[in-house]
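Q: Hi! First time asking for a complex rather than a single chain. Here are the components, and I think there are two in total. Is that enough to go on?
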Amino acid sequence: MRQIHIDSIRQLVADLCIEANTSLSQDVYQCLGSCMQSETSSLGKNILQTIIANADLAKKELRPMCQDTGQTVIFVQIGQDVQVVGGLLEDAINAGIREGYQRGYLRNSVVKSPFERVNTNDNTPGVIHYDIIAGDRLLITVSPKGFGSENMSQLKMLKPSDGLEGVKQFILQVVKDAGSNPCPPIIVGVGIGGTMEKAAILSKQALLKPLDKINEDPFLASLEAELLEKVNALEIGPAGFGGRTTALGVNINTYPTHIAGLPVAVNIGCHANRHVDGQL
Amino acid sequence: MSEIKQIKLPLDSTMINGLQAGDIVHLSGTVYTGRDAAHKRMCEYLANGKALPINLQGEVIYYAGPCPPKPGEPIGSVGPTTASRMDAYSPQLIEAGLVAMIGKGARNESVVEAIKRHQGIYFAAIGGVAALMGKCVKSAEVIAFEDLGTEAIRRLIVENLPVIVAIDSSGNNLYQ
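A: Yes, that's all I need. Here is the structure of the assembled complex.
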């Protein structure tokens, strides 16, 4: 049994919170650059250029690229041969968020209750998902999620008879409904299958997949390409002012499901698609 | 692409009428931040006949909740938030004298109507480019609703804040 002390977990989470908010991942950065070359709208081109300049400034001066530094979504993969010592894992993660948001001058956006809406003033609690994996490592992904895009996400329990066409229609409808709100160009995370909550988590995990890596499943790879084409044909464009760059990518995750169901979740991510991994 | 128009705030009706949907504009002068919670409260004040904490006559509200400033700086990153969440409140505030709003994303019909009726304007800022926009803020001061934290009303002095005219005073709408 490998022992990992909560102090190192707290510190890692704090560092990852700052890095995620100030440094755009390389795949998104490169994709923005190539879209700027191919964008036909001159206003759209100008907006993409400004988005890239913002990412450069954020990284250089360690400033949050977006003021909405999000609710902190954290995926934890914990090896079954790991023993966390010194306290509770969840407390250590939330302490890390608290420290990172304060040290990095990141905005506190979390309210205590959905009704009373009093700010917790330290961005805790995070939304934490745990997976137990083989081995003795602790892997942590920090993915701050802004609500400009989160609010535009949807989930629908389709019928098996709705089939592939129904799935495609729903995904396109969600992007259409989102329109200019979620800071296009967006990234479309799709989760298909499992149960209601499984589809939602799959869609969020789909936002973490690198844009420059083709889906290993050839059917899903071609579905992703087809949907990206169709999403871009909606011509919502950068910032919603028209143009071909509506999305940078469509990423799909699937899971076995029930004979009676076809859950589909679409999690919209903004161009500031922030996520970083760390491990202990 | 059109040239960048430099606008000094406050706006007057000649300036507003000279701006058209699609124009790229750099704003310099005073703007007030205010978003969901501040809008709700201001509309409650108006409904109860209570004076607003700021005089909205001729003013600009920027839908933004900034990041905390680093030491020695006036403000942290400060980009626009989704404007449609303010649609329920904007017509009342426009009625009360507000002339311009800065946010991101489309507005509903009642806001477009209020803009047309009162010769207002809606500027869109690029969502997410908050680090760049933060650099345009020369000073910031909380002037009302301090308890709302990032959602408090702040008076900002901005220099060359980059925005795009999304809905002009004639109701031309860049989102359509």
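A: Chain A has eight helices and ten strands. Let me know if you'd like any chain examined more closely.
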